[in-house]
Structures are given as structure tokens and as C-alpha cells.
Specification:
The protein has helices spanning 14-23, 46-58, 79-96, 117-131, 156-165, 178-183, 188-202, 237-244, 262-276, and strands at 3-8, 30-32, 65-67, 104-107, 139-143, 172-177, 208-213, 215-216, 227-228, 253-256. It is α/β, with parallel strands linked by helices. The strands form 2 sheets. It has an 8-stranded parallel β-barrel. The structure holds fe (iii) ion (FE) (2 copies) and zinc ion. Zinc ion is lined by residues 177, 179-180, 225, 227. One fe (iii) ion binds next to loops.
């Protein structure tokens, strides 16, 4: 069995998200730690965080997957953008995620904006080395990207470069996104298992901690990153059935980031569960 859920908004607090997830038939979820397009964050209510932790335990949830802000570009060509990003990451990991001990935090590695992959990767490593700390209970997940623009993390080799460069890398894992894989040129339709094989040989499957499950509005290798509802895009239902039942990804949290309202998510969660039986 996989854990399945979707992105929720945290405006009503932590426990409210847990209850909302249950309402949608989910047993995991994702949420933004701060305004995804700005970066501002509201004060954490420790009581509410504790109530969510108890709720997750009681309702047998899988790991929940917090998501860093989209504006967080650790490898920008502008120093102030990198500093802004590093401060957000630091605040997320040191002051916010620790209220939800033992969960996942995923973020987009960033865009190098013309400086080249090596330079970009070294900025990301530098930032992670600086803000991760011993005793940190969060596992930080690098998200695999579609390769739009100058995005870093479009292939397993680039993710591996980051992991290898970070000193305390046992806190690091990977979150794959089916739309990003597909748009990035990994043919998960003809062979999800082969893609996992490749991942295993380059990074090691034990680093794979979560999957974003999205169909794609575009064909293989398009580097576009436009998510579609499950079964309505170029990846298609049949491929998703093979993905969610693949024995090597069982027990991972699967997060829907499809263009849906609550009712749409409830139906997608139900559909995916029906494929597992
Ligand atoms: Fe993402
Ligand atoms: Fe994603
Ligand atoms: Zn995406």
C-alpha cells in the first residue's frame, strides 16, 4: 500500500489540515511552509503542531511532505536572491519543521540562470551545509525537476551531485514528481520500473522518500512542467496503475498536485486506492 493525499492550504492551521485530509480519504498530505509565491510565513502555534502530530499517529498517516516556497532559489545568479532563499530554508528547517518532528520537507533545487550547472550545484550544497544541523529531525527532499529553463535537478545525475556534495547527507532524500520525470524525458509510461532501476544505480532507491503524482499536459521530454489530472494527460491511467502498484515504491507518501478542487481530489484519491486492491 502507498500513502496518498494532496496539497492542502495551511491557513486554518495544522490540525485542520489533518482533518481535511481524512475528509478527502487521504492518509498523508503536503502543505506550503509559507506563502509559495512570496515567502512570508505566519507564527507557528506549538499546541496546534502537537495536536497534528497526535492526529497523524492516531489515524495512521504516512509521513507528511512540507513544501518550500517557489520563490526560494538557492542557486540564483543574484546574491540577494540566494541570501533570501537561504534564510527561508534556515527558518523552515530550524524554526518551523522541528515542531513537526520526523516529517519530510521538499523543495525545488533552483535555477542557475545561466551560471551553469556546476556553479548552481555548489551554491545549493553550500546553503544546505550551512542550514542543516546535527539533531535535525526532518528529512530534506530534493525534488526532481522537468528541466524548464535552467532548472537544476532535471536528471538523477544532478540530484546525485548535490547529495554527494553535502557533508551531513544522511538528512537528504529525493522526491520524484511523475510530471517532471516525464517532461524531463524519463519514459515512465513504457517502463516505470526501468526508471527506478536507473534511479537506483545512480542515487540508490533508499533515498527515494516521496512521489508527487501528476499527469502531464505535454509529451515526453517537453520540459514544460504543466500538471494535468490523473488519466487526462500524456501519462495516462494505465501508467499510473503500474506506478502505484509497483512493489518498490510501496509505503511511500504519494502527493497529488493536480489541477483540482476538493471534490476532484477526493475522487482521484478514491480512484488510486481502487487500483491498489
Ligand atoms: Fe514541487
Ligand atoms: Fe511536484
Ligand atoms: Zn511541477
Amino acid at each position: 500500500m502507498i500513502y496518498i493525499g494532496n496539497h492542502l492550504t495551511s491557513s486554518k492551521g495544522f490540525l485542520a489540515m489533518g482533518k481535511m485530509a481524512t475528509k478527502l480519504g487521504a492518509d498523508t498530505f503536503a502543505f506550503f511552509t509559507r506563502n509559495p509565491r512570496g515567502g512570508s510565513a505566519k507564527e507557528i502555534n506549538p499546541e496546534d503542531a502537537k495536536a497534528l502530530m497526535e492526529y497523524l499517529e492516531e489515524h495512521k498517516f504516512g509521513k507528511i511532505v512540507a513544501h518550500g516556497s517557489y520563490t526560494m532559489n538557492l542557486c540564483s545568479n543574484k546574491e540577494e536572491v540566494r541570501t533570501f532563499a537561504k534564510n527561508m530554508l534556515k527558518d523552515d528547517l530550524q524554526n518551523r519543521m522541528e515542531f513537526l518532528p520526523g516529517q519530510y520537507y521538499n523543495f525545488h533545487p533552483g535555477s542557475h540562470v545561466g551560471q551553469g550547472i556546476e556553479q548552481g550545484v555548489s551554491y545549493i550544497i553550500e546553503a544546505l551545509d550551512e542550514v542543516m544541523f546535527s539533531g535535525m529531525r526532518t528529512t530534506v527532499l530534493l525534488e526532481g525537476m522537468s528541466g524548464k529553463g535552467s532548472e537544476i535537478g532535471k536528471c538523477f545525475e544532478e540530484l546525485k551531485m548535490i547529495i554527494d556534495g553535502v557533508k551531513d547527507n544522511h538528512h537528504l532524500g529525493v522526491c520524484l514528481d511523475t510530471c517532471h520525470l516525464w517532461d524531463g524525458g524519463y519514459d515512465i509510461v513504457s517502463g516505470f520500473d526501468q526508471v527506478l532501476e536507473t534511479f537506483d544505480s545512480i542515487i540508490g532507491l533508499e533515498r527515494l522518500k516521496a512521489i508527487h503524482i501528476n499527469d502531464s499536459k505535454n509529451p515526453l521530454g517537453s520540459h514544460k512542467d504543466r500538471h494535468e489530472k490523473i488519466g487526462e494527460g500524456f501519462i495516462g491511467s494505465e501508467a499510473f496503475q503500474a506506478i502505484v502498484t509497483n512493489p518498490r515504491v510501496q509505503n511511500l507518501p504519494f502527493i497529488l498536485e493536480t489541477p483540482n478542487d476538493d471534490e476532484g481530489y477526493r475522487r482521484e484519491i478514491e480512484l488510486i486506492r481502487s487500483w491498489q486492491k
